[in-house]
Every structure is written in structure tokens, then in C-alpha cells.
Amino acid sequence: MADIDVPVLVVGAGPAGLTMSNLLSRYGVRHLLVEKHPGTAHTPRAHIVNQRTVEIFRHMGIEDRLLTAATPNELMANNVWHTSLTGLELARLHAWGTGPDRAADYHRASPSPMANCPQTVLEPVLLDAAREWPEADLRFSHELLSFTQDPSGVTARVRDRVTDAPLTVRCDYLIGADGGRSRVVEQAGLPIEGEAGLSAAVNIWFEADLTQYLAHRPGVLFWNAAPGTPFLTGGGTLICHRPWTEFVMVVAYDPATETIPHSDEFAVGRIRRVVGDPTLSPSIKGFATWTINHQVASRYREGRVFAMGDAVHRHPPTNGLGLNTSIADAFNLAWKLAMVSRGQAGTPLLDSYSAERQPVGRQVVDRAMQSVQEMAAVQAALGFAPDQSEADGWAALEGLYQPGPAGDARRAALREAVELMNYQFNAHGIDLGYRYRAGAVVPDGSPEPAPERDPQLYYQPTTWPGAYLPHAWLDRAGTRLSTLDLVQKAHFSLLTGIGGQGWTEAAAAASQATGIPVDVHHIGTRDGLQDNYGDWATLRGTSTSGAVLVRPDRHIAWRADEYTRDAADRLTRVLGELLGLAGG
Hints:
It contains 18 helices and 25 strands. By secondary structure, the protein is α+β, with helices and mostly antiparallel strands.
């Protein structure tokens, strides 16, 4: 007999696990979450929160809580390369969509801004929200030991690390959100592809008032490029977590030839050197060692067991993709588990989780690794070389400030190298543009839209099935709302317009036939949602009488170019196909 019987067991209380808890609760699914540590993250770790993630917080009803706790986008504005904070500044780049050439793109793409919020701040926001739901049983200091599967469920052994008491949990589905050393992935036999331990680094978490050095050039990342020291992170890169008093300094090293002592003496000395102030007295809060990996699981599911987050995609922190991809994993799977748990969908729907998210994970891992490699372009442009003396390094930098053709060429090379960093710090298409080309999507026969601009740098909204619902501002009864706000709970939404009134009756018939809630929204009609800017008319991709069917995770499931008399039958067939229902 199990001590606890619950539909879903979530292992891990990081961003993915806590997001999953919040979503399952919102969708009415009872669950148990276990976390082996006594609380949420004790070091800052991931911190970049992109627009898609803030939108997911919006869907969960806690966007305001996140933005209140986070550093706002305007204070993320600059990436700075310097010899020390008091020394020579070598280059600067507008980052995270704040530059005059990119701000409109980011503003147009989403109702939500980017933010900077370390895990020490973000996870408590998620945890506080998760604790408000009766559907959630959250247990810290509880460690998953093992599990077995059978055709009807999963039996897991859990240990209370405080009392050492064993606990047997019976669940329909188990979710591993237990990080880069995932016990769930290991025991489920999910194959991990790629390389681990490519390099090592230490995070030094500290507090110091650096306002006088940073307030005039606000940003998140300050790259140390001091002559005679290992390039960039080897010298000590500063990550700002709270302006301008809380930071992490990243020091990369080769564990085969050197060690980084976890001592206040070392940390204070290195911080003083990077800042350029020998009198600074930082307060050291902690150390964390980590390695660079280039790995992704070839599949995210084994039977009734699923994995997400760092458990299945492990990569450098470049591009700030890890936390965001992990939360998007949860957003993809939660509604599917909810519908299957309620009997509204067949189990084939769950196959779409890996089919949709694994290619995204692969793209993220590869992009993050490529960004690491591209950083060498800045090193070369500065004139730095391995084992270079401090004097030779300063001589190389001096060439940047010489008049004439040689100096012009050096400066042009540096600007070109810094511009390449846009693929790490302004990669809007990577953040928002992923599409599901296989999974819970019904094609409409149209070709995938070709990119109009660089698809990594620029997000191109479309209602092509598999893409994310484009944002457009609408008005209803004096209230402004986004098209994204039309998608509520674990409901499908059908967006139509003038001449599409018949879709209301069609959706009702399809809902009755399938048991799937479908909310219909008429956009542009006199008494419906007003498209006063005309943005939705530009983006919808159908005639005014057509319809766009949106999944609960805001990805386009299907679209019809116009209303026809057989709309109810068409929509019923589509829902059946999407959700793995008999006869679908």
C-alpha cells in the first residue's frame, strides 16, 4: 500500500518543477512535489528572464510579482568590456533589446518585458504562489530514492531527510525536474548525448556598493579583459543581480592545472582587481563550482516518466537560455497531463511533449555552445593571445587607439567582433521564435513562412500551425488586453473575426462531441474585441471569417482560412486528432 496516492509526482523545486506545480494547480491536478534540499536556490545561478517566460508568469497570474522582485529591463541595457571598472572601457553593446535599433522589435513582440531575476529571488516567487493552491503538496528535505513503472502507474520510494522516514508514493505520472545530476533521467534510462566537463568555473557571490562604477552604464554583464590575465571569465566577469550592490563574479579555470580556493582572501583579492579598487571591502556570500556541458537527452519521456529542465538540456549560461527553456518545458507538458488526467485526451497526446521540446532543447544547447566559441572573436580583436605577458597585452590594446589605417582596421575588427555578440545578447528569434513542427499540431497545408530577416536575431510572428500565438493589443469594454490573454486555464481558444460568427456554434458542437472546452473570441466585430491598431488583422493569417485554434500553451494548433458549413465537423476532427481521441 502506498503512503500517498496522487496523479502526478514532481521531483525538484527549481524553476521547472515550481512552474509545473503552479500550472498543475491552476489546471486542477493534484500533485506532490518533493525536493531533497531544505529550501529553494541558495545561490543566484540563472538570472535572465526573457519575454516568453514573463508571458508564462502572466498566464499563471503572477507576472506582477515577478516584475516587482526583478531588475527592470532598462537596467539591463549594457554589456561592457573593460580592463577594470575603474580602468579602461574597451567596448559596449546594447543588450537584451534595449538598443534604439531593437527596442521596437521587443516592444512589438510581447505584452511583457524582459527582466533580470536570479534564482534566489525568482524561485521564492514561484514557491509562494504554489503554496496558495490546495492541489499542491510541497515537501522539501524529501529525496527521491528510486521508482518502478508498471502499465497503470509509477511507484516511487522517497526519504524524509530530516526524520529518515521512508515514504512510498503511487502516481500516474512522474516528472523529473531534478537538475543536471538527475536521478530520474538516470533511472529512467533516458540517453544523454554530447560532452560533459568541457571547462570549469567558480561563481563567487558577494555584496559591495559599486554604484559609482556602474550606475552611468547600467547592465547585467561586465566582462573583464585585463592584459596579462586569462581572457574574460578567466579574469573575472561580473554579473549584476541587484543594482548595484549584489553580484556574482565568474572565474573560469582549468581544473587539470589549477584550483580556485573557496576563501574570502582569494575572492576579495580578485574582486578588488576586477573592480580596480584596492580598498573595496566586499561581503562574500558564497561559492559555487560548475562545469560547461554540451548535452541534451535524445528523448524526454520513458513510459510514464518525463524529464525537463537541466535534467535534459545542459549547456553554458551564454544567451541566458537555461532557466527560460526549463520553464517553457513545464508550460508545454502541464496542460497535456491535465487533459489526460481528466480523461479529455488520450495518452498519445503525451508523446508530443518530447517531439516538441527535444528539438528546442537541441537548438538551445547548440546555440549556447556556439556563443561561447564566438567570444573568441573579441579576444582576437583586442589583440590578446594565450600566455601573453601583461606588457604585451597593453601594447596590443594601445593599437586600438592609434591613428591611421592600422588603427582604423583594429577598431573596425573590434566593432565587428562586438556586433557578433548580438547572437548572444539580442537573439530575439532564439528567445521567441521556436516552432513545433511535429507533435500536437494539425497542418493547414501551407508552407512554413520563410524568414524575412536573420531568424536568430529577429522574431517573426505568424499563425502558421506550430508557431506561438502572436501578440497584438486589443480593447474590450474600455480595457486593453493582449491576444495572449485570451487563452485561459487549460482551454483551447478559437480566434475569429467578421463573418466568423458561425464558429461559436461550431465550437459548441465540437466541445460537446469531444469534451474539450473551446473559448471563442471574435476580433474586429462591432460588439466584440476591437482591433483598433489593426495589428491582429495583419498577423492573423486568415480571412476575417477564418479561425485560428490556439492550444492552452498558446501555440497554434490549427487554422482555417474561412468559415464553411462543415466547420463543426472540421473542428471536431481536428480536436480528436490533436488530443489522441478515438475516432479523431
